[in-house]
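Risk register update: the risk of archive-format incompatibility is retired. Evidence:
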Amino acid sequence: MASAGGSVIDAKLGGLLLAAQGGDAVNVEEGALPFWHVLLGFSEGKPVRKASVAELEKTEVHIGYRLPQRLKDLLKIQNGGVSNYEAFVDGERYFPVLDFFGVGEGYGTLIHVFNMSKEYETPDGIVVFAGGAHSVLAFDYRADVNEPQILYQHTEDDEFELVCESFEAFLSGLVEETEL
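Archived output:
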């Protein structure tokens, strides 16, 4: 698991940002695992483009909240998809890392999922950012609009379960499959 303060994930994200900006480095630390699994779309097998600043801003206006900066940084590398990380683990608590939704318009985007969540009567202040296999991960802006908590919900359950206090804490608690 990453150390407190997220230094391992910081190094991984830093290296990915260098790569996204045209640098040669993909990983800062030797053997560091990139956040994104592959640069492929959900099911089309097409390369996924990077999210633009305009798409990020349009999404934030549509949902009514600012996305955490670290998520925006990740979406600028790859606009949604599958992570190389298996789960968020905190002691005995285990939450699977689900497919991240990208920004823009159309199926599989935060805007699409936000609109659908209103049909399913998701409480105000909760914004789903990842999902799959009848489960979702969501931001909870109800307590703090500047730093949302991370929630998990199995769609057969009515209640959301608190995963951690912030997206930073979520990234810091991610583990690779081999670490489980």
